[in-house]
Amino acid sequence: MAGTIKGKVTGASDDAPLIGANVYLEGTTMGAATDDEGMYEIDAADGTYTLVCEYVGYATQKVEVTVDGTVEVNFQLVEYLFSKTISVIADRAKERETPVAFTNVAKAKIEEQLGSRDIPMVMNTTPSVYSTMQGGGSGDARINVRGFNQRNVAIMINGVPVNDMENGWVYWSNWDGVGDATSSIQMQRGLSAVNLATPSIGGTMNIITDPTALNSGFRLKQEYGSGTMLKTTFTANTGLIDDKYAISATVVRKIGDGVIDKTWTDAWAYYFGASYNVNDNNRLEFYALGAPQRHGQNLYKQNIAAYSKSFAKDLGYSQEALDAFEEKGRLWNQNWGPVSSSYTGKQAVEGNTFDRYDKNFINERENFFHKPQVNLNWYSTLSDNMSFTNVLYYSGGTGGGTGTYGKFQPDFSRNPWVWDWDKIIAKQQGDTAQTVIRNSRNNQWTIGNIAKLYWKANDNLSTMFGVDWRTAEIEHYREIRDMLGASVFIDTRNEFDTTPASQEKRLGDKVNYFNTNTVDWIGGFAQAEYTLDELTAYGTVGYSSIKYGFTDHFKKGDDGNELSLQSDNISSFQVKGGAMYRINDDMEVYGNAGYVEKVPIFDAVIDDRNGVFADNPANETFLSFEGGLNYRGLDGMLSSKLSFYYTKWQDRTMTRGIEITQGVFDILFISGLDQLHTGFEFEAAFQPMPMFRLDLAGSIGSWNTLNDVSGSYRTVESGTTVTKNYQLAVKDLKIGDAPQTQVAVAATVFPIQGMSIQGVLKYYDQFYADWDPTSRIVFDGDTPDRGQSWLTPSYNLVDMHASYQLPFDLNGVQFKLSAHIFNLLDTEYISDATDNSRFNAYRGDGKNHKADDAEVFFGIPRTFNLGLSITY
Question: How far apart are CA 112 and CA 802, in angstroms?
Answer without folding.
Answer: 7
